Each structure stands twice: as structure tokens, then as C-alpha cells.
Amino acid sequence: MDRRKFLKITLSTIGGLTGLKLEAKAIKTDYDWNEHNYTFVVDSTKCIGCGRCVIACKIENDVPLEPHYFRTWVERYSWYDGDILKVDSPDGGFYGFSDPDPDTDRKVKKSYFVPKLCNQCENPPCVQVCPVGATYRTPDGVVLVDEDYCIGCRYCIQACPYGARYIYPVDGSVESRKNTADKCTFCYHRITKGSKPACVVVCPVQARRIFDIEDAEKSIEFHEIMDKNRVSVLKSELGTKPRVFYIGIDSEVR
Amino acid sequence: MEGFIYPNEAEIGWGILIVLYPYISGIIAGSFLVASLYKLFNVDSLKPVFRLSLLISLAFLIATNFPLISHLGHPERAFEIIITPHLSSAMAIFGYDAFFLLSILLFIILYEYRKDIVNLATQSSGIKGIFYRILTLGDYDISEKALKSDNKLAFYIMWVAFPSVIFLHGYVGFIFGSVKANPWWNTSLMPLIFLFSGIVSGMALVLLIYVVIFRTGRDEINLTCFETLANLLLFFLVIDVALELLELAHFMYLQEEGIELIYGLITDKLFITFFILQIGSGGIIPVVMLVSGKISKSMNFKKFVYILSSLFVLIGVLAMRWNVIIGGQIISKSMRGFSSYHLPILGQEGLIMAAISLVIPFVLLGVLIKLFPVRDNLE
Lengths: 254, 379
Fold this sequence. Notes:
The complex is a heterodimer of chains A (254) and B (379). Chain A is α+β, with helices and mostly antiparallel strands. Chain A has helices spanning 3-17, 24-27, 52-60, 125-129, 155-159, 188-191, 198-202, 216-228, and strands spanning 38-43, 72-80, 84-88, 108-117, 135-137, 143-145, 166-167, 181-182, 208-212, 231-232, 244-247. In chain A, a hairpin with a 5-residue loop joins strand 5 (135-137) and strand 6. Chain B has one domain (2-371): Formate dehydrogenase/DMSO reductase domain (Formate dehydrogenase/DMSO reductase fold), CATH 1.20.1630.10. Chain B has 14 helices and 2 strands. The longest helix of chain B is centred in the middle third of the chain and has 34 residues, at 144-177. The chains are: A alpha+beta (254), B mainly alpha (379). The interface between A and B is large, with 45 and 41 residues.
């Protein structure tokens, strides 16, 4: 018996005897990534652009607060009279959104928010180009970066068509991540313990939802959404096969 | 910043060092082609620059690693590319090709310099003597028969090295050309353009260094060799310019997604470096100058235009690398705007580091020329 196992059993026994219950999830180590498959649905028609997801993500994942590093961000698409489209994402939507263009008299015809995150592609170009295999796709469908292995060449950043990656800055708070590629992981540290990603938890309108389609109940729920809505993925023409599905966006959303 | 860019695109990932890396490695394609034309394709007029071309190839091949490694976020992990490569990555394969090429280039130089090395090993003492004695690999046989068989072996190794060099630089183009997310990079012509621009830059540099060595030395330029180099430069430059213009025509004709950005890029953001430095003074003007030199009977005029054209070509190819690498990154992958790039003076990706990266191959070349005489074999 190794030391870790011995400690676990001893602590559980003591905990049980004294009436304390160790939270199983907190020490759960038997997560099998072959038994899960995650997919994400963004309902653009529900998003109100509050930016809570951006804030939650930054806090949860120690993403530097400086404006141009994001694991997730929110874009706004505004159509004005004359079919003029304006796209913006001030500070990634961190502070929410104000009037898109206060100087114009043009009327806004249509406007909506589009939350963005890593698409966890089934055919991820970022994984293909990594020269050392530091970035990889897990069997449960999430693209991760091994920060102890990444050489910081930035090829994955060039290859990602969605701008979902950045280099973790040297003044960031996580030592091991400095100068390595960083990206959305669907909050892997949370989902592998049965929790939801931070952005999903804080979204007040359920515009962001995650499904483990290996879970029968969640799978039914996911397929119901897919069956009842017109759903698209971003830049499907590139053959990346994204696993983040969007409801209610125009083809102009890239 | 202009229009809309993805927030993470505010930071340009590949800066000046990655502009210099294909520039330095491109030189090898040209200089090694010169060496190959003499050794493998019997272009005897290139004999005076054969050794020089080999040394330039070696110096630049070693030096190309400097900007490549120093731009990494974790340079200390650089060897992982060789030790634990991810074989689907274009970058990992480049590492192997470069490493392989370095080894065989060293062999070629050892065989080419057999006689000199053995002579120097027996004549020199101290550290210099030890150095040359190591390079003899313990074999001091420089009889006619031994030299002939060495020469034969060098010939065969050269046949392995030649396609490797061509592949290496085409592959550098592939590293960029295979990025499907980027409309300015994603073209099948990219490897060819990198290869041919590399060839012309290398040839131009061989010509210039050859002139510099002989201007400062006691010998005279071998005019047949000089003229052959200029002819080759012209030949490959015409192909290079044609390919670059064809790529432009391809973009303009296809009018695919991102064309507005490409148009904005070349007419505004990169106007000077693209139309003036790359296509104009780096391409069309040197072609005209080289042709005029070719038809002129005045040797002084020939010398003047060949040297000037080579300089222009070297600047033009550097501009081309800038246009591809920086240009490709200031285009937003959202296809809705431009980010911007400012070259810092200091820092890991600054102007000073860039200057050091550019000087290193010349310092290395100086050392190599000192160790392996290029003159003795010149005619």
C-alpha cells in the first residue's frame, strides 16, 4: 500500500467515525476520461452581454486581468440601417457593453452578443502543429496544454482560426504557465470532478451550457436542443469540426 | 488596431526574430545550390566560390537556430523538438531536416578540406594543431588514391545534401503556407516562393562576399565566375518575381474570404515593404539591372550593377520575409480588421536582438574562413 492510499483510507475512516464526511468529489481520483465526452452549446439569443462569464473565467483560471488575454470573451454584432455591420468586444466584454456607436444617428436594426471560447475541435489545427505534442486532445473531447512541456513557440496560436489562444505572460500569477500557450479547457479541473465550467455556472440566462453526451440524461437534453434549433459551428469550411455549437447566429459570425 | 480583431490578437506572437529565421535559413538554399552546381552539375566556372558557398551554408545553418531558439517562451526546452517530436507538426520535421543537414554538411566540408586539414594538422602546434588533428579523424593519408576516394564520397554525400537543402527551405515556406487559418499564408505557392527567394538571396550573398573578399585581398575577381553567379541570380530572380506576382494574381483573381484585408494589407499597411522593397527594388529593378549588365560590354558597369542588384535582392528578400510573417499576423483571423506591430528596441524580440541575429552568421563565417581557407582553392 502506498503512502497516499494509506492516508486516504486512514482519513476516510477517521472522518466516518467522527461523523465527518470527506467530500468524495474533492478527492476523487478515479475519473476515467474514456467514459465522458463533452460538448458545449452557446445560445446567442439568450446572451445579454453582461460579461460575468469573462470575469468568472479570469478569476477561476488565473487568466491575467490585463485586457488582451482571454480564455473566453463576448463579441457584439450590431447591424445598422444600410446593412452596415459593426463588431466589437471592448475589453473582451469584461465590463459589459455600452452604446455601440454613440456618434451615429443610424438606427440599429439588429444586435446580439456572441460568447466565444475554444471550440475544442475534433480536428484541432493547434494540436496538429505543436512541434512537441504539448497540446493534445483528451478522449473526453477537450484540447489541453501541458504547461510543463510547452516550449512557447506560438505555432498553435498561429494555427488556431478562432483566436482562442494566447501566451501566458511573465507577470501572470501562475508560475508554471509563464511563457506557455494558454486557452480555455472547459474548466477541466472542474468538469472532471462533476462540476460545471465557471462561465456556465455564472451565466444568468443559461446562454452557455455544457453536456457530457456519454451521460444518457445529458445526451437526451443535448440532442433535444440540437433537434429543436438551427445550430451552426464557427468556420466549418476549415474542417476543424468544432465541438462548440451556436444557436441564433448569422453567417457573419466567424 | 483597426476594425475588429479577436482580443487575443492584440499581441503579435511572431516578431522580428521569426522574420530573420527564414531569411537566414533561406541563404543556405542559394549558397548550397551554388556549391551543388559546381560539384554535381559540372558548372566549372563556379569553382572559385565552391568552398566559400559551403562555408556560407554551414555558418548560416548554425546561425539560423539563434533567432529560432531565442524567440521561444522556453528556450531551455528547445531540444524537445528533436528528442520528443510531434510528427504531425511541420515545425518538428524542420528540426530533423536541419539537424540532418548540419551533420552531412560537416562531413562534406571535412572531405572537401581533407588535404588542407592534414597539412594544417602536421604543420600547426598548440590548440590549433589539436583542432586540426581531431578533424583528420586519425587518418593522415592524403595520397592521390585516398583523395580520389574522399572526393568520390563527398560527391555522393553531396547528392544527399542537395535535395535536403531544397526540401528544407521549401519546408520553411510550408510552415507558413500550411496555416489554413491565415488567408495571407494559406497558399500552395508559399513553399515555392520561399525556396526561390531563398535561392536568390543566397546567390546574391555569395556574389557579394566573393567580391568583398577579393576587393580586400590581393587576388583579382575571376570574371567568368562572377558573370556565372550574376547569370544564375538573374535566372532564379525571374522565376522568383514571377511566382510572387502569380501569387498576388491568384489572391486577386479568386476574391476569396479575406481579400479585402489582403488588399488593405498590400496597398496600405505593407505598401512600402511589399510594392517598393519586395516587388520593385527587390525584384523587377534588379532583373532590369542584371539584364543591362549582361548586355553591357563595360566591365566596370557590369561589376557595378551586379553588386548593386545583389544588395537590392538581399534587402528585397528580407522585406518579403517581413511581409509574410508580420503581414500575416496583423490581419485578424476574424477577417474584420488589423492589429499592429511595433518593433521594440530592447527585449527578447527587439531590434538589438535582431541585429545580433543578423551579425552572428557573418561572425561564424569569418571564423570558418579563418579555420578553413577559401583562397587556396580559388583560381
